[in-house]
Amino acid sequence: MSRVVRGMVTQSNDKLGGSVFHFDLPAGRHGTCPGRTSTCDSQCYAQRGRFLFPQVQDRLAYCYAATKRKDFVPRLVSELYRKGVLAMRWMVSGDVYSPGFAKKVMAVAEGTPFCRHWLYSRSWRIPAIEAVLRDLALVDNVSVWYSADRDAFPTEVPPRVRVAYMMSDADDHPVQPVDLVFLVHRLRKMALPMANVCLQETPEGRESGVTCSTCQVCLPD
Ligand code: SF4
């Protein structure tokens, strides 16, 4: 009798669109967001709503446990291959929680050259993790984004890394130009005079049905 192996990636959500898969971890106070700031913690969509459903919590805990296993990398490489995953968003929920896990993310990306991977991380605030994120950003099929907000902005941005700023109110502007601006929910209906806002978070973008699957600005070339 063949053994059914539970999957670790999920296909699609409202923002990502139909052709992107995602791998997620518990968020916030589980030690999985070591670079979190008080602003991102207070705005975190992954600590409320549907993320609190028992079946979602169960999936996140399962994925977190899976990252600790010795066979995590070959299992995930195999799953991405079998499912034909061409675009992978790491951590819709959670973050790169340790240098060891960052190295596993890199190994998965290197083992799946057919797939484009991307992630946003505040773990650049943890020097030991940042050292691996720098290397991860140099992998051809990976885009690494350093997440910033009014509490924390990177003073140095490594090669191939881009910066995404979370704007938490109408007066909150980045201290330097950034590559992308994300808006907290209550700002998404406003016509803000901001450059580089994620199109999916604007009224025009939502009306035209933009998702990461069609936009692809954040993905590697
Ligand atoms: S800019 Fe495009 S790819 Fe990036 S998060 Fe927004 S919709 Fe997705």
List keywords for this structure.
single chain, 221 residues, alpha/beta, 7-stranded mixed beta sheet
Task: Explain what this protein looks like in three dimensions.
With 221 residues, this protein is an alpha/beta fold. It has one domain (10-211). It has helices at 38-43, 54-67, 72-83, 99-111, 127-137, 203-208, 212-215, and strands spanning 10-11, 21-23, 87-90, 116-121, 142-148, 162-167, 180-183. A seven-stranded mixed β-sheet has the order 1-2-3-4-5-6-7, covered by helices on one side. α3 packs parallel to α4 and α4 runs parallel beside α5 (127-137). Iron/sulfur cluster (SF4) is lined by residues 180, 198-200, 210, 212, 215-218.
What global shape is seen?
A: globular
Please report the distance between the alpha carbons of the first and last residues. Answer: 42 Å
> Which series of helices and strands comes N to C?
EEHHHEHEHEEEHH
Which structural class do the helices and strands define? alpha/beta
Bound molecules: iron/sulfur cluster
Secondary structure: number of strands: 7
Total individual domains:
1
Given as residue ranges, the uncertain stretches (5+ residues, pLDDT < 50) are: none
Mean pLDDT: 95
Count of alpha/pi helices = 7
Q: What is the gyration radius calculated from CA atoms?
A: 17 Å
Helical content stands at: 25-40%
What is the secondary structure topology, with strand pairs?
Elements: E1 10-11, E2 21-23, H1 38-43, H2 54-67, H3 72-83, E3 87-90, H4 99-111, E4 116-121, H5 127-137, E5 142-148, E6 162-167, E7 180-183, H6 203-208, H7 212-215
Parallel strand pairs: 2-3, 3-4, 4-5, 5-6, 6-7
Antiparallel strand pairs: 1-2
Helix pairs in contact: 3-4, 4-5
Iron/sulfur cluster binds at residues 180, 198-200, 210, 212, 215-218.
